[in-house]
Amino acid sequence: MAAGARRAVYPLFQRGGPQLRIFRPNFFMLAVRPGVPQPEDTVQFRVSMEMTKLDIRNYLEKIYNVPVAAVRTRIQYGANNKRNHRNQRVKKPDYKVAYVQLGQGQTFQFPNLFPEKEQDAETRSFDDFRDKFMEKEKQKQEGDPRRGGVPDWFGL
Q1: How far is CA 9 from CA 6, 12, 13, in A?
Q2: Distances (CA, A) of 6 to 2, 9, 30
Q3: CA-CA distance, 70 to 17, in Å (whole number)?
Q4: Residue 17: alpha-carbon gap to chain centroid
Q5: How far apart are CA 62 and CA 72, in angstroms?
Q6: What are the two backbone dihedrals, phi and then psi, of residue 99, each rounded to the nearest 5 degrees?
Q7: 80, 47 in Cβ contact below 8 A?
Q8: pLDDT one-digit tens code per residue, 56-72
Q9: Which residues pair with 30 in a beta bridge?
């Protein structure tokens, strides 16, 4: 160590000591939009491979105060069909998927992050103008139908 650099010294943990500590779980849970329609009371999560059904239930009930009726899990195996520049197989990592059925009367609707906006008259007129212009340009590029498929650059 350099002469001017000092090492930070942290106080030891003492039971009921002066410092407050919060211990958070070392897991992640990612809410995923399901590929197939699910019942309204079921939410799909991508979770850590080490999490058990009991861990998932406790995580949601204790941290987020979400009532959980049932938890089902499955392991999704990663694709193994790509090859790298050395022609070696490259496998995507496996991951665990959890289907959480919420408590009585609870429903979950995945939020619509990008709703369709209604177009006002100005943007609608611009879109109409653009469509007409593009139609004219396509007609110019089509060529003469009497030439029987012979391109214009091939002069007769």
Answers
A1: 9, 9, 12
A2: 8, 9, 40
A3: 38
A4: 42
A5: 19
A6: -105, 115
A7: no
A8: 999 999 889 999 999 99
A9: 46
The string of DSSP codes covering the chain is --SS-----PPPP-TT-SS------S--EEE---SS---TTEEEEEE-TT--HHHHHHIIIIIS---EEEEEEEEEPPP--EE-TTS-EE-PPPEEEEEEEE-TT-------SSPPPPP-HHHHHHHHHHHHHHHHHHHHHH--GGGTT--TTS--
Cα–Cα distance, 12 to 23 (Å, whole number): 16
5's tokens: 């650099």
- Condensed to tens digits (0 to 9), the pLDDT of residues 7-54 reads 777 666 667 665 555 667 788 899 999 999 999 999 999 999 999 999
What predicted TM-score, i.e. pTM, was given to this entire model? 0.61
**How many of the other CB atoms lie within 10 Å of CB of 47?**
22
Q: Which residues contact 49 (CB under 8 A, 6 or more apart)?
A: 75, 94, 95, 96
**Cα distance between residue 97 and residue 74, in whole Å:** 5
